[in-house]
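Shipment paperwork, digital attachment
Item: protein structure file
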Amino acid sequence: MSELFDAVDALLASRATLPPPAERKRLRTAHGLTIDEVATALQVRRATVSGWESGKTEPRPPERDAYARLLDKLAELYPAAPADTATPVPTPDAEVPATFTAAPTPAEAQTLSTGPASGAAVVTATENAQTPAPAPVAAAPAAAFRPARTTRTSSTSRRPGAKKAAPAGTPAGSTDPRFENGPLAVVDVEDGQVLAYCTGGLVLDVPAKSLPSLVDWTLKEAKLGAPKLAGPGKDADPLIVLTEAALERYGLPVTLTEEEKHAGRIPEGHKVIKQLTRAEWKLTKRGFGPWARIYRPATGSERACVQLCIPSWNALDTRHWGEAGQLPPAELARVLGVYASRVMTPRGSTAVTGLELMTALHPPTRASEPDADGKRHSEHNPGSLGKDAIDPMNWPPCEVPDGHPVLKDLPRFHVRGPAEKLFEEAYDWARPMTDAECTLRHLVGIDVNMAFAAGANGLNVGLGEATHVTNPVFDPKLPGSWLVDLSHVDLSRVKVGKEWVELDGSLLPSPFTPKGERPEGPAWYTTPTVAYAQELGYEVRPVEAWVRRENGRYLDGWYNRLRDAYLATMADLGVDADLSPADFLTAMDGYKARDPELSIVVSAVKATVKGGLGKLRERPRGEGWRPGEPWRALSRPTWRPDIRAAVIARTRINLHRKIVKHASFTGQYPIAILSDCVVYAAAGPSPLDFLPYREGKPLPGGFKLGINPGLVKHEGTQSVLWGEEVREKFNAPELNLARYIKDGTVTDVDNGE
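Attachment content:
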C-alpha cells in the first residue's frame, strides 16, 4: 500500500500548483534571494531557475515539488498586496517615505528611531530602492537574507519621490562586514552636499572637505572594498569615482589639457598633490591620472590604498564602457558595481583589470608552513607566475616583439621572417565567391561568443622560463614554441575525427597563418598549432624548440570568472544559456535595449578578455623608449607574450576545426573570416538557413547557436549582391566582408590594423 501512496504523492508533485512566472520572481526578490541561491538550494542550474521565472520553461519532478514548497512559504511571508497599499516607514528624511518589504534589523530600527550618531556617515539610498536589492553574485548561505535598506531621495534623472524596484543585476552590499557598503562609490555634489552613491541603491553622506580627508573617510568610515578572490591574495581596495561636481569641490580640474592628456596625469606641482603629500599620502609612478592610486606603505597585513576613477578624464574609454561616463551617479554606481561583483573592482582600463584579475586569482606568493620558531614566511605560490619577471635577456628571440633587448644585436632595419619570429595572430582572410555561391541570395555572418576566453579555457601554458632544445620530439602536452615545416599539410585531404575526408582545399584558409596562406617552409608555431597539424593526420618534425617544463592551466580560473560574469549579465538581459536555437536568435535581437546599463557591462566584460590577453605582450608606450632598450612592462611577471600567442593560436585552431567539420558535412565553405566572425553564403538570411540542425541538435563538433563562450550568435546578414558591389567598387575581389557584415557600411578599405 505504501508504494501506491508514494505513486500518488509523485503524481500530485508532478502537478504541483505554481504561481505565474512574474509572481515567482516577486516572491524571490521580496525575500532578498538571488537566482543563484535558489538554483543551489534546488540543485539545478542558474539558467533553469531563470527560465522558470520568465515562463519559458516549467519545472518537472522532483524539483517542481520543492520549488512549489519554496514559493508557498514565501507567499505566506509576502502575500500579494493591492497597488499603493504599502505601509510607509519613517526615515531620517521623512518627506519621502520608504517602503519596506522585509523587517529591518535591530541596528536599522535604531537608526530609524534615533537617526545617525554624530560624526558618523548617514546611510541613505536613492528613490529607486523599494524592494530589497539582490544579494551579491557570489552566492551567500541560504539563511543569510538582507532586509531592505532605508531610502532617501536624490537628484537623479527620475522624478522626485518615484519608487522603483532595483533593476536586475543591481549588486547589494558585501556580506563581509568590513565592506558592507560594497566595492565602490560614485562621489557627487548635490545642493552643496557631498554624497557617495554605492551599489544596491545605497547613498552615504560624505563629511570630507578635501581630497586627503576623502581618502581618510573612505578607508576609516565608508566600509568600501571587496574580499580577496583567492586564498593567499589581497582584498580589493575601495574605488572612488569622482564626478565633475566632485572634482570642482576637491580642487581638481574637470578636464585635462592636451598636454596633461598626453602625459596621462596632472603636474606634480598641483595644489591637490601637495595636499596629499602634506598628509603623507603617496601616488604610484604613474602619478595623478584618470586611474590614480593613493596609498601609504603597508604596515604588516594592513593596507591603506584607495583607487580613484575620473570619468571626465577619460578613465572609462567609450570603446569599452560606452556612455557609462555620462550616466547619473546612481546609474554609474550600478554599472561599475555589477562589473566589480562579477569580475573584480576595476583597477584601471579593462585591459589593466583583465591582467590584474589573472594575478588576483593566482597570487604570486603565499605564507609558508610555520618554521621551527613558529614563524611563517613568504614563498612562491605554485601555479602562479611568481613575483619576479623573466630576465629580458632570457627570453627566446622568436617569442619577443621587434625592439626587445634580446634582439638589440640585429641589424637596424632587419625584418624577421617566419623562421625567426613567432606570428600567432587571429584570422584576417577572405576569398572570391564561387559561381554557385553567387546564385544564393544572402551572406550570413556568425560570431563566436567570447572566442578568446574559450581559447584560454583548459589551455596548458608555461609558468616559468623556456628551455632551448634541438631536434626535439613534438609533445602536444608540452607548452612551447616549435620551429617546424608544416607546408606539407594538404587541406584537400584531412582527418576529421578518425576518418579521412576529401575537401576543396582551395576554398579553405590555412590554419597555420593569420592570412590563411599556406606555409612555404619552416616557421615558428605554438604547441596548439603544431598539435592541430597532427590532428589533421600529418607528421610533424620540429628542428628546434623552446619548451616550458613548468606549466599548468593558469587561465582556467580567469576564464571561469569572466564566463560566469558574461552569462549572468546576458541572463539578466533575457538571453539564457538553455534556449533553443530559434528562441536564442529571438532573444539576441535587440537585447541591448532591454537594459542599456547592463549592456555596458557585457561590453566591458568582453573588453576585459581581449585587453587582458593583449597586455600579456604590452609594447613600449612612449616614455623616450628606443629599440633595444627595456620598457616598463618587461618588469612585470605577467609580461608573457608566449601565453598570449598560445591563446590566440588555440582560438584560431578551434575556429578552423569547426569550419572543417562544417565543410565535410555540408559542402559549405566560408567566404571570409575576421578574428572570430565567419561569413557564409546561404539561401536564407538566418544562421539556421545554413547551420545543420536535426531535431534541434547541432552538428557534433561544428557550429552551435548559443550564448556560452565558444558557441556562435548571428553577427549580421547582407545580400550577395551587396558583397559583389562592394568588392567591385573598391576593386578588391578578396575584400574581407566579415569586417562589414554587421551593418553593411563600408566607408573605406582598411588594412585591419
